[in-house]
Specification:
- The complex is a heterodimer of chains A (150) and B (519).
- Chain A is an all-alpha fold and 150 residues long.
- Chain A has a domain of 103 residues.
- Helices cover 72% and strands 0% of the residues of chain A.
- In chain A, α2 runs antiparallel to α3, α3 packs antiparallel against α4 and α4 runs antiparallel to α5.
- The radius of gyration of chain B is 24 Å and the shape is globular.
- In chain B, α5 packs parallel to α10.
- The chains are: A mainly alpha (150), B mainly alpha (519).
């Protein structure tokens, strides 16, 4: 069944106008307060803190509950992001991402024991990279200069 | 309240018209080329009418041609005139606005390029499924509506395209386009400012359905839809809602629905809509888990849909000035060009219609030229219409590819722009000039995306390192924005410092690439 365009369009125009008028009459609720980014409590402040957390969380035996396991998974997942907030060069960052992906794959397999063993095995390397970030951040003082200039 | 809604509507419609203008212009050009140069038979051949290829071919042509859901309306009407089947027309009409070379490039630099690949394959599934079902359920043979004399070679052949575009502007096409824009007004009325920020969070079962309700009346250009997808993935919003937004927000509007009802009747249109919504929601829920990004901290909100809500709050004043200021800030040069071109088309269309009252323009256009000089005629090769049409369509695609390089400049150029914008944002934020900072923040966000696409376009890759550096900057920009909104000076200073540092690191990450590519 085909329709007469003019008649149909007139009906559509009336419906749109009516619905718009009804909408205008309705109370406009107060604008909701703007949303915030919720930063999880267990998210480390920086890469150095993340490595410290990994050391603490893997120094004991297996995580006691699923929440702790999830937190450990979250922290290894945050490593590339936290490392990107440092002055580490690309090669070092790539290595951190590689390790993070390896840990996340193990976490997906629900093998907490193997995950902890792998983190413990790589901990020295992660610590060395953490020390390097501290050195680089201390060396690269141009940021402060740039801020002062502005 | 009503003042805010009125001026909000004015702003939203003006923004949509300016964004749509280049795409509507393209739509009129394609429709005129189809009518005058290709003709019904060649259009049917182009879309593989009557073969199994028709639906995927419509999908592929739709991916290439740069039109939006308003610009596609004249093309769909022309396809119907050419006698194409409903399934093919609707497949093209739904796909063409979803992707174009610019938006696909943008999408490929998102954190999960696979997502865009999956979404485009799913869009093929959507158009193929509903196209096949539509043609199977309603197999009525479509008759070619009119028989038109072909236009002979020479200046008339060029002029005929302009005549078609001008006359098409004053046809029902513009009515359907205006109906399409009414959806924006409708949303502006029912959605108060920022009211849709927390409605489509990841894990919310209702998110895809809610998004479906908003996406149908909404109008989004392919680029806007793609950037909204980017924001949704950055915030960990519902993947199903993102898919619904892409297919229905970019692909559909009230204008297309009304045209469909007029062209095919209620029964077929309702069936098509039901199947479309079923397939989109089914795929949306199916994609929710497999495509949910794992490397982000989900936020409990998204700013991606603020553009569909009323832009003004009840207590805001000086609204006309605010509308003007916003338009002055937002309208891009290519949009101005599109609007001026449409204005010229409208004027010439009026002129052609006035001429037709006294003079048979069609007969003159279709009458053959008198050949007076056989010798010079032999040197003057007459190109067939299909060659000109192919050149015009390939030219449009080539222009849109060239536009990619202009819109996404080299990293060096982007960094220069970002340097200027950074100065504006940080100095304004620190000195308490909130409105100035809030004006420049979206500009910085835009350049932060464009630099990534610019690198991808030139290097055919974007390293995870560069992507992450840009993401850190984007995160800090957003945190600074929230701090400014909260009017918390301590936080503003804190995030301004972190943002400046993140920017410096990003510059080094992208300068390394520039140097490497220069060498």
């Amino acid at each position: 069944m085909k329709m007469n365009p003019t008649g149909f369009l007139t009906r559509v125009a009336i419906i749109v106008m009516l619905s718009t008028s009804v909408g205008c009459l309705a109370d406009n609720p107060e604008e909701s307060g703007h949303a915030e980014h919720v930063i999880p409590e267990h998210k480390p402040a920086d890469y150095v803190s993340a490595v410290e957390q990994l050391e603490i969380r893997t120094s004991n035996s297996l995580p006691e509950n699923s929440e702790q396991r999830q937190q450990l998974t979250d922290i290894v997942g945050w490593l590339p992001e936290l490392a990107a907030q440092t002055d580490l060069p690309k090669a070092d960052w790539d290595r951190i991402q590689e390790l993070s992906e390896k840990y996340q794959a193990l976490a997906k397999q629900q093998d907490a024991k193997l995950l902890i063993q792998e983190i413990q095995a790589d901990l020295d390397e992660l610590k060395q990279l953490a020390e390097k970030t501290i050195e680089l951040d201390a060396f690269n003082t141009y940021d402060q200069k740039e801020l002062t200039d502005e | 309240m009503s003042e805010a809604i009125f001026w909000g509507g004015v702003l939203r419609v003006a923004q949509s018209v300016s964004q749509a203008a280049p795409f509507i212009l393209t739509g009129f050009i394609i429709a005129a080329v189809f009518r005058r140069w290709l003709g019904p038979q060649s259009v049917r051949k182009l879309f593989g009418e009557g073969t199994w290829r028709s639906l995927p071919q419509a999908w592929a042509l739709g991916m290439l041609l740069p039109v939006c859901s308003l610009g596609v309306i004249p093309v769909m009407r022309e396809m119907k005139r050419a006698g194409l089947r409903g399934g093919t027309i609707l497949a093209f009409g739904l796909t063409a606005p979803l992707f174009n070379p610019l938006s696909v490039l943008y999408g490929l630099t998102l954190s999960e390029p696979f997502t865009i690949f999956a979404f485009s394959i799913c869009s093929l599934v959507v158009v193929t499924c509903i196209g096949l079902l539509f043609d199977w359920a309603f197999p009525a043979k479509v008759e070619q509506e009119v028989h038109e004399e072909s236009v002979p070679y020479g200046i008339k052949r060029i002029l005929s395209v302009f005549v078609s575009m001008g006359k098409d502007f004053w046809s029902y096409s513009i009515v359907y386009i205006l109906i399409g824009l009414s959806g924006i007004v409708f949303l502006n009325v029912i959605l108060p400012k920022a009211s849709f920020q927390t409605s489509v969070n990841g894990g919310d079962l209702w998110a895809p359905i809610l998004m479906t309700g908003v996406a149908i009346p909404a109008y989004a250009t392919p680029m806007l839809a793609m950037s909204q997808l980017g924001t949704m993935f950055q915030h960990g919003n519902s993947v199903g809602a993102a898919f619904a937004l892409l297919i229905l927000g970019a692909g559909l509007n009230f204008g297309i629905i009304v045209w469909m009802v007029v062209a095919y009747g209620w029964k077929k249109s309702v069936c098509w809509m039901v199947v479309l919504l079923g397939v989109v929601l089914g795929l949306g829920y199916g994609l929710e888990k497999p495509l949910y990004p794992t490397d982000i901290d989900p936020a409990d909100h998204s700013h991606a849909f603020d553009v569909y809500c009323c832009p003004f709050s009840v207590d805001q004043s000086h609204l006309p000035a605010a509308v003007w200021q916003k338009l002055e800030d937002d309208v891009r040069p290519e949009e101005t060009f599109g609007m001026i071109s449409l204005f010229v088309i409208a004027l010439t269309g009026l002129m052609f219609l006035a001429v037709e009252r006294r003079f048979n323009l069609e007969r003159w256009l279709t009458s053959s030229p008198e050949i007076t000089d056989e010798k010079s005629r032999s040197m003057d090769v007459v190109l067939p219409n299909w060659v000109l049409a192919a050149a015009a369509i390939i030219g449009l695609v080539a222009v849109s590819v060239a536009m990619c390089f202009a819109y996404y400049p080299s990293p060096e150029e982007c960094l220069e722009e970002i340097f200027i914008v950074k100065g504006e944002v940080l100095s304004a934020a620190r000195s308490g000039h909130d409105s100035h900072a809030m004006h420049w923040i979206p500009v910085w966000e835009d350049w932060n995306r464009r630099i990534q696409v610019g690198v991808y376009l030139r290097e055919f890759q974007l390293s995870d390192y560069q992507r992450m550096k840009a993401r850190v900057v984007a995160d800090y920009i957003e945190l600074l924005e929230h701090a400014i909104e909260d009017d918390d000076q301590e936080e503003v200073k804190h995030y301004a410092t972190l943002l400046a540092r993140a920017h410096s690191r990003m510059v080094r990450a992208y300068q390394t690439v520039s140097k490497e590519s220069a060498e």
